[in-house]
């Protein structure tokens, strides 16, 4: 978009600086009289806003204040996020974004992103042309059917693409104008929303089958037609069956990845690799047990099996046998094979049936336990105690989001394991004291990966996303975990260094894309870390002449 002047300039979030417009800018851009006389620095504005945001008691109020800031003054919004990542992440992202989606209808002020519903069928190319930006580098798209661990939130899932893309910019340095949040609305099966007078989406049951895949196909084609073949499409929070089908269908024709399957997988693999620095042994020396065999569970399992297979030079069919999954019907075993969904079949190993997690732990004796069930409080005291009696240092990852769906809390993991566990969770928990010692839980969240992964794909102009690229992203993240981190029980680096971390992930990703011949941005830059950093968006105000 181009810069307006005067009254419209103050109302254009991309260029508005509020009181920070200089005397010269006020003269040149017809702003005289439209602003009070004081001139503020961006730093002072930031200080004022931080004071304001901290005064709100409720996280949802903070969320709304930040969204209003984003719609009023985009650079100031990103300056706040970049300078205060650890404080702001739980507000613009999990857990608060989950609550925001649940209440989206009532807190809704101005639409963000593009809504593409069944009503727009046959017109998606035109819909894309209504968006004010022409150059798009990354799209995050959801259909709202499985928002975090909260289930079907229909059209109100829009909070997720908006939040993820805010992180693309804040954590990965992708220009905000190049980011497009999209929600595909094919209805919702959430009865409560269908009855809610403030619901913002289509008031009908979800379309499925041909009608569903036709709309998605039209969208995928329209994106390529409008924005070219390099625009990255991140699938987010689709229900299991569609998530796997869409990835399978489009991975050979578009640069796509599914954050819940592949982003989460890369983050967890990086965490496990870091944990090995303190546990010792190689990946293949460990035994993994998952609670939850959906997108996250099977996605992580597959990437770990792949890495093991690469390291140990044995076929992936062999390494998969080190990894066990439990779903709602119990341990996934061979005798269940005929009734399993296709994405679970590779995990059906030879074993007698076991009904529940606790007995599975006793039988399998995992060294690493991963929660990817979307169901809170499923790592009970018995579960954690069983893990601690089998292992000197059990690794416990409670990945489900938001906090209410976490398989256990940090406090539970540390107290029930008597301080023995290495713990990480998808949603943040505060550091805590146990027996006079400080424990700092890590946040095993795909937010560590997708911004850097996206940046790496964008700067190299990658036209496809292969598994090798995800392994590179995981290596990039693991490489940023210091010995000092690991000694404190931290298997992830602190988020405050995230822009540097993202640059390293981006560099590894881009390098792999070039090596595999998938990169279209030529020539290949010499120093990819330096190049990634130089491409990053800075939220510092620019001077307008
Ligand atoms: O959004 C998050 O915090 C992580 C994620 O992708 C999910 O839970 O679906
Ligand atoms: Mg997600």
From TrEMBL:
**Pfam families, from UniProt?**
malic, Malic_M
Q: Where is the active site?
A: 93 (proton donor), 164 (proton acceptor)
* Keyword entries, A-Z: Metal-binding, NADP, Oxidoreductase, Signal
Q: Which SMART domains does the record associate with it?
A: malic, Malic_M
Gene Ontology terms, MF aspect = malate dehydrogenase (decarboxylating) (NADP+) activity; metal ion binding; NAD binding
Question: Start and end of every Malic enzyme NAD-binding domain?
Answer: 261-514
- Catalysed reaction equations from the record: oxaloacetate + H(+) = pyruvate + CO2; (S)-malate + NADP(+) = pyruvate + CO2 + NADPH
Keyword Signal appears in the UniProt entry? yes
This protein's record includes keyword Plastid: no
Which residues make up the binding site for (S)-malate? 146, 401, 445
Query: What domain of life?
Result: Eukaryota
In which family does this protein belong, per the annotation? Belongs to the malic enzymes family.
Which protein is depicted? Malic enzyme
């Amino acid at each position: 978009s181009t810069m307006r002047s005067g009254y419209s300039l103050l109302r254009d979030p991309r260029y508005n600086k509020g009181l920070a417009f200089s005397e010269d800018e006020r003269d040149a851009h017809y702003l005289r009289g439209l602003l009070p006389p004081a001139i503020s620095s961006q730093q002072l504005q930031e200080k004022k806003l931080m004071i304001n945001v901290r005064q709100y008691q409720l996280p949802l109020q903070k969320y709304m204040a930040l969204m209003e800031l984003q719609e009023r003054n985009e650079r100031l919004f990103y300056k706040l996020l970049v300078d205060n990542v650890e404080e702001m992440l739980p507000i613009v992202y999990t857990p608060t974004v989950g609550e925001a989606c649940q209440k989206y209808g009532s807190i809704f002020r101005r639409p963000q992103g593009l809504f593409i519903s069944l009503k727009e069928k046959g017109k998606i190319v035109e819909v894309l042309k209504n968006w004010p930006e022409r150059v798009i580098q990354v799209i995050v798209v959801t259909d709202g059917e499985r928002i975090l661990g909260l289930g079907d939130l229909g059209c109100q899932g829009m909070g997720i693409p908006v939040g993820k893309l805010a992180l693309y910019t804040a954590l990965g340095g992708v220009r905000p104008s190049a980011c497009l949040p999209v929600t595909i609305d094919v209805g919702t099966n959430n009865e409560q929303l269908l009855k809610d007078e403030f619901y913002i989406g289509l008031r009908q049951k979800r379309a499925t089958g041909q009608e569903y895949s036709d709309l998605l196909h039209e969208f995928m084609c329209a994106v390529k037609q409008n924005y070219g073949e390099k625009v990255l499409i991140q699938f987010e929070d689709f229900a299991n069956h569609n998530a796997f089908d869409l990835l399978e269908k489009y991975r050979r024709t578009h640069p796509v990845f599914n954050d819940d399957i592949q982003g989460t997988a890369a983050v967890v693999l990086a965490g496990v690799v870091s944990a090995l620095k303190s546990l010792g042994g190689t990946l293949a020396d460990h035994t993994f047990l998952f609670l939850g065999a959906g997108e996250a569970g099977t996605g992580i399992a597959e990437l770990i099996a792949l890495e093991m297979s690469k390291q140990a030079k044995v076929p992936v069919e062999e390494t998969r046998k080190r990894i066990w999954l439990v779903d709602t019907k119990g341990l996934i075993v061979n005798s269940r094979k005929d009734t399993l969904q296709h994405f679970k079949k590779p995990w059906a190993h030879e074993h007698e049936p076991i009904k529940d997690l606790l007995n599975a732990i006793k039988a399998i004796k995992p060294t690493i336990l991963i929660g990817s069930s979307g169901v809170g409080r499923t790592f009970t005291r018995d579960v954690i105690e069983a893990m601690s009696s089998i292992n000197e240092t059990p690794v416990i990852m409670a990945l489900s989001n938001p906090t209410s769906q976490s398989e256990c809390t940090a406090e539970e993991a540390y107290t029930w394991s008597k301080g023995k566990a290495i713990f990480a969770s998808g949603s943040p928990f505060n550091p805590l004291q146990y027996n006079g010692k400080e424990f700092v839980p890590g946040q095993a969240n795909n937010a560590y990966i997708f911004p850097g992964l996206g940046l790496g794909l964008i700067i190299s102009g990658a036209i496809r996303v292969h598994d090798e690229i995800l392994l590179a992203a995981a290596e990039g993240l693991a490489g940023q975990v210091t010995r000092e981190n690991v000694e404190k029980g931290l298997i992830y680096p602190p988020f405050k260094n995230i822009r540097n971390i993202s640059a390293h992930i981006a560099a590894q990703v881009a390098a792999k894309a070039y090596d595999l011949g998938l990169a279209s941005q030529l020539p290949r830059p010499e120093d990819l870390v330096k190049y990634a950093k130089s491409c990053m968006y800075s939220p510092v105000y620019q001077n307008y002449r």
